[in-house]
Write a structure and sequence with these properties.
Mean pLDDT of chain B: 88
Helix content of chain B: 25-40%
CATH architecture of the largest domain in chain B: 3-Layer(aba) Sandwich
Strand content of chain A: 5-15%
Number of domains of chain B: 2
Order of helices and strands of chain A: EEHHHHHHEEHEEHEEEHHHEEEHHH
Structural class of chain A: alpha+beta
CATH superfamily of the largest domain in chain B: NADH:ubiquinone oxidoreductase-like, 20kDa subunit
Strand content of chain B: 5-15%
Oligomer: heterodimer
Largest interface: A-B, 61 and 57 residues
Structural class of chain B: alpha/beta
Shape of chain A: globular
Strand order of the largest sheet of chain B: 2-1-3-4-5
CATH class of the largest domain in chain B: Alpha Beta
Radius of gyration of chain A: 21 Å
CATH topology of the largest domain in chain B: Rossmann fold
Low-confidence stretches of chain A: 424-436
Strand order of the largest sheet of chain A: 6-5-9
Order of helices and strands of chain B: EHHEEHEHHEHHHHHH
Distance between the termini of chain B: 57 Å
Number of helices of chain B: 11
């Protein structure tokens, strides 16, 4: 029975940024199937030119409202490397704590506010409050704790102001760290509530698999489930890491006609980054509570169901919270000290690399002798996922084409959301046109 | 029942969506606020989309001809238009690109592909450079309590009172040491308060995300830069960071 179906979703909802999906199936034959990024480009790499190194983090944190801390940290690491600035140990630990606050905030936002409505079959989190009240309360509490956590260390919930090359303008007091630690213990129970509720709806996670390359950071000294230090690894690398300074060889960026954002490829025609990629490369290094959650959902290393990225994020939430509780102990046992690093601008070029909640992020800058930026090159995780989303579409559509227009639209949208795309980072997205 | 409530649409243009995030960050208060209105479109948080609304909240700056058209259509439909956050109110960091030729900006980012039609971009405009704006919620990002206050005011038909004094007032009230004494070029003396001086309170200079007060005392600013041995150029460089009105930087000379 030949049908003609047309779906037209312009600007996919419940994602950060603007993207379209175009599907054209004629008499059972797929004529067009595209994931398109239509965000207005903002040209950050051009805007930072001639700006002092002191202004860089302030500007580039604005690449993304959800992962502003990540962008600030990546740029600050690059500046420090370019100018030979040594970062003291306490600063390093507090920065990682700050970075973890954003992983929790962003993951909970995605799991609870953006993705969960799909699993529970509602259009947003608002009606979910009556359908699954306790879960929504746990999500909101965890989200608020994450925000207060960012606020405490970064000086603001969004767009940090305390980060500066070499250190912080101000750090929390021991009492404030202790209070934070208490709220994090509470967050562990909230994450349990969320995990237990999600286990009951795992049948709503589409069964779809496509083998691909997973790229993330890997830290060997000491072995850590890393978001902040380390080198580049992929599931196609046989354990051989690549120095972050050589990221161009990994990303191989190119401009696609489908997109205002650049696309990337490495060993294959597409690769994936994000929580599932980190999990597939580093799962054995997760904290005990995180491993428990993974087990509950039967999430194992080698998973190639992109929809499971949302579950990998939940696993990571437990990891960052549990690990932070320990890190605060370590900080307080040692006692907080005042660290002063003298920063003298000098000429240099370097890359700063960290894991954004949605995947590996590269920031590269070159400075003149006065510390003014000559050139910048930024490669954000969502861009690194675009080609992979396209490849997923190409395998998924033939498998579900018989399920009809509404199911197809829903699964394609859910797939895009599973990657937790941050399209305003890459430059905004979703228009679904479907003809069968 | 819901038809008697004002219909609200939240729309975004070129920005980081961090201001919408502050609305989500109202946490438990969000459902309460949402229940007082009828949210007919909010792409980042809900699936519904609509062409009928009374209040349009606009986030982001305008950087493409097609976006100007979309904004004009929204303005025609909306009774009240609110600009949300620095990108919308003053252009924000997006205005930094206006310091360069557009072709140079495109070449810098997209190289040989710069002329592909879908990568087209124009100099950045704040919302009021394209259409009439009724109310502005300042900041990068906005302050969620101020957002709540402005929305509450609009719902009861009252004009929201936004501070017309500079950040220094709030900073001094908090007892913070002046960052100028620590060598920082802080824009507190000329930038609109209402943020609670958050940045200077964290030891970081005010960089002007809330825009200038209505009548910035630029002569005083000149006295300050003289006292601290700075050049007008150095001050101007900090002033353009968040696009806080090119005309004021000219008055500075």
């Amino acid at each position: 029975m030949s049908k003609n179906i047309k779906i037209n979703v312009k600007h996919i909802t419940r994602v950060e940024g603007h993207g379209d999906i175009v599907v054209n199936v004629n008499n059972g034959k797929i004529e067009k199937l595209q994931w398109k990024v239509v965000e207005a480009p903002r040209f950050f790499e051009a805007m930072v030119r001639n700006r002092s190194y002191e202004d860089i983090q302030l500007i580039v944190s604005r690449i993304c409202g959800i992962c502003s801390i990540t962008h600030s940290l990546a740029s600050t690491k690059a500046i420090e490397k370019a100018m030979g600035i040594e970062v003291p140990e306490q600063t390093d630990i507090i920065r990682i704590l700050m970075h973890y606050s954003e992983q929790l905030q962003s993951h909970i936002l995605h799991i609870g506010y953006l993705a969960a409505p799909d699993f529970f079959g509602v259009p947003s989190i608002v009606p979910l409050a009556t359908k699954a009240g306790e879960v929504v309360k746990a999500i909101i509490r965890a989200h608020r704790t994450a925000n207060q956590w960012s606020d405490l260390i970064a000086g603001r919930t969004t767009h940090p102001v305390t980060i500066k090359p070499g250190g912080f303008t101000v750090i929390p007091t021991e009492k404030q760290f202790r209070e934070l630690q208490e709220s994090l213990k509470q967050t562990m129970t909230e994450l349990d509530t969320v995990a237990n509720a999600m286990v009951n709806i795992t049948d709503k996670i589409p069964k779809f698999e496509r083998e691909t390359e997973y790229v993330s950071l890997k830290q060997e000294k000491p072995p850590t489930y890393t978001f902040y230090h380390g080198d580049i690894i992929s599931t196609d690398c046989n354990g051989q890491t690549v120095d972050v300074g050589n990221w161009h060889e990994v990303a191989n960026e190119y401009v696609s006609e489908q997109s205002t954002a650049k696309w990337t490829k490495w060993h294959r025609d597409a690769y994936a980054v994000g929580a599932l990629a980190r999990f597939n490369n580093n799962a054995d290094l997760l904290s005990p509570a995180a491993k428990n959650i993974a087990k509950k959902f039967c999430l194992e290393k080698g998973c190639c169901n992109p929809y499971m990225n949302t579950i990998a994020q939940l696993v990571e939430c437990a990891h960052v919270v549990e690990t932070s509780i320990e890190m605060i102990d370590k900080l307080l046992t040692k006692g907080l000290t005042e660290e002063h690093v003298i920063v003298k601008p000098k000429a240099g070029k370097a890359t700063g690399c960290v894991e954004a909640p949605r995947g590996i992020l590269f920031h590269e800058y070159e400075f003149d002798k006065n510390g003014n930026c000559i050139a910048a090159d930024i490669c954000i995780p969502t861009n690194q996922n675009h080609a992979n989303i396209q490849k997923d579409f190409e395998k998924l559509l033939p498998e579900i084409i018989e399920q009809g227009q509404e199911a197809v639209r829903c699964k394609l949208e859910m797939l895009v959301r599973a990657y937790d795309p941050c399209i305003s980072c890459s430059t905004h997205i979703l228009d679904v046109q479907f003809t069968k | 029942m819901s038809s008697s409530k004002p219909r609200v649409g939240i729309f975004d243009f070129a920005c980081c969506e961090g201001c919408q995030l502050q609305i989500v960050n109202l946490e438990e208060e969000l459902p309460e606020l949402v229940s007082a209105v009828d949210v007919v479109e909010w792409r980042e948080a809900i699936s519904d989309q609509s062409d009928e609304y009374d209040i349009a909240i606009i986030e982001g700056s305008i950087t493409r001809a097609s976006d100007e058209e979309r904004l004009r259509t929204i303005r025609k439909t909306a009774k009240i238009l609110v600009a949300l956050g620095a990108c919308a109110t003053i252009g924000g960091v997006n205005k930094l690109k206006n310091n360069f030729e557009m072709q140079d900006v495109k070449k810098c980012v997209y190289g040989k592909d710069a002329d592909m039609p879908h990568l087209d971009s124009s100099p950045t405009k704040a919302i009021d450079e394209v259409v009439k704006v009724d109310y502005k919620i300042h900041g990068c990002p906005i302050d969620r309590d101020e957002f709540k206050y402005v929305m509450q005011s609009l719902l009861i038909g009252k004009k929201p009172e936004i501070p017309e004094y500079p950040v220094c007032v709030e900073c001094k009230a908090k007892g913070n040491p002046c960052l100028w004494d620590y060598g920082q070029v802080c824009l507190g003396p000329i930038i609109r308060a209402g943020c609670g001086a958050r940045c200077p309170s964290s030891g970081f200079r005010c960089f002007g995300c809330r825009g200038y007060v209505d009548d910035p005392n630029l002569n005083a600013a000149k006295d300050v830069i003289e006292k601290y041995g700075l050049t007008v150029e150095e001050l101007k460089s900090k002033m353009v960071l968040f696009g806080s009105g090119a005309s004021a930087t000219q008055d500075c000379e």
